[in-house]
UniProtKB/TrEMBL annotation, chain A:
Signal peptide extent: none
Species name: Algoriphagus machipongonensis
Taxon lineage: Bacteria, Pseudomonadati, Bacteroidota, Cytophagia, Cytophagales
Segments passing through the bilayer: none
Protein name: Iron-sulfur cluster binding protein
Record Pfam families: Fer4_8, LUD_dom, LutB_C
UniProtKB/TrEMBL annotation, chain B:
Protein name: Oxidoreductase
A Pfam short name: CCG
Cellular component, GO annotation: cytosol
Stretches assigned to the Cysteine-rich domain: 3-83, 129-223
Molecular function terms, GO-annotated: oxidoreductase activity
PANTHER family assigned to the protein according to its UniProt record, in alphabetical order: LACTATE UTILIZATION PROTEIN A, UNCHARACTERIZED PROTEIN YKGE
Signal peptide range in chain numbering: none
Length: 452, 247
């Protein structure tokens, strides 16, 4: 499905769309206030961007170092070239443990790999322990936002859902009450799981450790109660040294939610006595993206979600309109790298306003990459009607005479035709907007008569 | 100083009065301005649709037309941004193309940065809502961006500061996109209109009399929505206000 039709569908309920926009704008404003309290904010962004550039150009070395140090620390390191391999590795570990139920803390990578349906098919119960994630899991939906997975749902929706799934009182929308019910439900799941899966926010080759950031402490809870911890990370999640962590932790929380720091930043370096710790390093298209000069720095992304909150398109079309695991501006440059045909409308789902690039804590030139993807996508599409009309336009614009004649014709046509039957592209213009009044003469004609 | 007026194609065809205001304003500011008759379009609509490679002819035409001037000035931030950043590099263009790109300016930028006019003296007793168009704002940095941690500035606001009676209204979302976005306005019609409606409400809730901007394209989009909904708010380009205020 294309983005325009999905967006139009979302906008049918104008009130809800408006509420969605306001809710995310509120997060964006919190982010503004919080980032402006830090005088060196722009400096921090520059430093973070530089560190990530450096990581991307030395990724092979850093990955090798990470593997070496982590292994020395007693972590089992695995490599997965794609989603399928990743899922298999997870399943094998579970089989060895004879584990039939796992708890998972928010991990976008496992979403990307479609781990949940895979494990469920293989008889493993998967429980997402982040509150928002659990909510969308109950609804059999993917997250609609990478930081706020259930942001598209209103209190009433959640109350109704919990009433059905957790037997809460019908109509009780008190957030505290609902959260409490969810916590109780999750507690039982935590206690029963032998294996916990987490994502990774930052992996540090210098020390062979990794850091997981959550606001609910659910990653810690899962990991501490389970015998086995499986951490899944995309290979780009590296920062070189422990000392770099401060830069990223300051940027991440503020960009994501406007908090000064995420509530739980947990470091994992080696398994507790008698326990197992696995780290799976996943490529799944990342080296391909790294090889694309124009798009490689999309891999600098630290998944804060700020570009989604600021994006006027995302705010008014919702996460599902993108049809990809990572939605919004950054998703629109990552997804075509995975499947250019399937995601061909995403780079066009933007006005190229540039707000995403200005908000991005690691200074990814998102809107410029959207522009570049447009050039690539039209090339991949071969000859199309749109392409031919662009060549025609070039033919007109390279000739002053052709331009003059066609301009005159256009104005004459617009004057005589009512909006409804004006040819196709302008039809879409006329659905919700009037056309400008057509003047008698162009500026060029006026100038010729009056000035030359 | 030889200044060439670059009037983007849609202004030429639909908003000739904005072209006239720009010309008169620059003349009042003592510029030696002429309008090269061979100009057509900068190529932005094609490039933004993904067909930058098909704008070579258009680009060549642009460079040929403007290369002999000291400055090229346009009342449109987005067209200027296109010329500066998205023209395809012509094989034979080399130095000439780079020079043309470097000497192309958006109107308010030209007045403040090149003519070194801090503020315009005059009178215009009206309540103005200013729409900061994204390409001008975040592309050309004509005003500060609310995402960045930087001292606030706005070149248009600075020019308006000396005008008697002009009341500048601060909007709730001071630099939100209006949803025009070139061909986006057509390919994502539903979204574009919704964004425009929201943008318009911000102005209307602040009871502005005139919505002003530096890009006619955004104004055309907002005006189209206002008209469809029978809103009486007026629209004027920055050049028209400055030109009227002086005289
Ligand atoms: S692209 Fe930048 S703003 Fe968007 S999620 Fe990634 S780090 Fe955050």
């Amino acid at each position: 499905m294309s983005h325009p039709s999905q967006a139009a569908k979302f906008l049918k309920d104008e009130k809800r769309a408006h509420w969605h926009d306001e809710t995310l704008w509120f997060v964006r404003e919190k982010r503004d206030i919080s980032s402006k309290k830090i005088p060196e904010w722009e400096e921090l962004r520059k430093i973070a961007s530089g560190i990530k550039d450096h990581v991307l150009s030395n990724l092979d070395n850093y990955l090798a170092e990470l593997e070496k140090k982590a292994t020395e620390n007693g972590i089992h390191v695995h490599w997965a070239k794609d989603a399928e391999e990743h899922n298999k590795i997870v399943l094998e570990i579970l089989k060895k443990q004879k584990c039939k139920a796992i708890v998972k803390s928010k991990s976008i990578l496992t979403e990307e790999c479609h781990l949940n349906p895979f494990l469920e098919k293989n008889g493993v119960e998967v429980v997402d322990t982040d509150l928002g994630e659990r909510i969308v899991q109950f609804m059999k939906q993917p997250p609609s936002h990478i930081v706020l997975p259930a942001i598209h749902l209103k209190k009433g929706d959640i109350s109704e859902l919990f009433h059905k799934k957790l037997k809460t009182q019908k109509g009780n929308e008190d957030p505290e009450y609902l959260t409490h019910a969810a916590r109780e439900h999750l507690r039982n799941k935590f206690l029963g799981a032998k294996v916990a899966i987490t994502g990774v926010n930052f992996a540090i080759p210098e020390t062979g450790e990794f850091v997981v950031c959550t606001n609910e402490g659910n990653a810690d809870m899962g990991v501490h109660l389970a015998d086995v911890h499986i951490a899944c990370m995309g290979i780009e999640k590296i920062i070189p040294r422990r000392a770099d962590l401060g830069v990223f932790l300051r940027l991440l929380a503020r960009s994501a939610t406007g908090q000064s720091i995420t509530n739980y930043n947990s470091h994992f370096r080696s398994p507790a006595p008698g326990k197992e710790l696995h780290l799976i390093l996943v490529d799944n298209g990342r080296t391909n993206q790294l090889a694309r000069d124009k798009f490689k720095n999309s891999l600098k992304c630290i998944r804060c979600g700020a570009c989604m909150n600021t994006c006027p398109i995302y705010r008014r079309s919702g996460g599902y309109s993108y049809g990809s695991t990572v939605p919004g501006p950054i998703g629109s440059i990552l997804s075509p790298g995975i499947d250019v045909k399937k995601y061909s409308t995403l780079p066009f789902a933007s006005t190229l306003c540039g707000s995403c690039s200005d908000v991005c804590p690691v200074k990814i030139n998102i809107h410029e990459q959207l522009y570049e993807w447009r050039q690539e996508i039209t090339k991949a599409q071969g000859i199309t009607g749109k392409g031919l009309s662009m060549q025609l336009a070039n033919g007109i614009f390279k000739s002053p005479l052709a331009y003059k004649i066609s301009g005159k014709m256009l104005r004459a046509t617009l004057k005589t035709l009512p909006n409804s039957i004006i040819y196709n592209p302008l039809n879409a213009w006329g659905k919700g907007r009037d056309l400008p009044a057509t003047p008698k003469q162009s500026f060029k004609e006026w100038y010729q008569k009056n000035r030359s | 100083m030889k200044v060439a007026l670059f009037i983007p194609c849609y202004i030429d065809q639909f908003y000739p009065h904005v072209g006239q205001a720009t010309l008169e304003l620059l003349e009042k500011l003592n510029c030696n301005v002429s309008y090269p008759m061979n100009q057509t379009c900068c190529g932005q609509p094609m490039a933004n649709s993904g067909y930058e490679r098909d704008t070579e002819g258009t680009t060549r035409q642009f460079i040929e037309t403007f290369k002999d001037f000291d400055y090229i000035v346009a009342p449109s931030g987005s067209c200027v941004l296109h010329v500066k950043e998205h023209q395809p590099c012509l094989k034979e263009g080399g130095k000439e193309q780079a020079e043309v790109q470097a000497k192309t300016y958006e109107l308010s930028e030209f007045i403040t940065d090149i003519l070194k006019v801090d503020t315009i003296q005059g009178s215009f007793p009206h309540k103005i809502g200013f729409h900061s168009s994204c390409h001008g704002q975040r592309g050309l940095r004509l005003s500060s961006s609310s995402e960045l941690n930087e001292a606030p500035f706005n070149k248009a606001k600075a020019l308006f500061a000396g005008i008697k009676g002009l009341e500048w209204v601060e909007l709730a979302r001071k630099d939100e996109c209006c949803g025009f976005g070139g061909t986006f306005a057509v390919s994502e019609e539903a979204l574009s209109v919704q964004m425009g409606k929201d943008r318009l409400s911000d102005h209307l809730e602040h009871q502005v009399e005139i919505i002003c901007g530096g890009d006619v394209s955004c104004l055309m989009h907002l005006q189209g929505i206002a008209q469809r909904n029978n809103n009486q708010v007026k629209f004027m380009h920055l050049a028209e206000i400055l030109n009227q205020a002086i005289s």
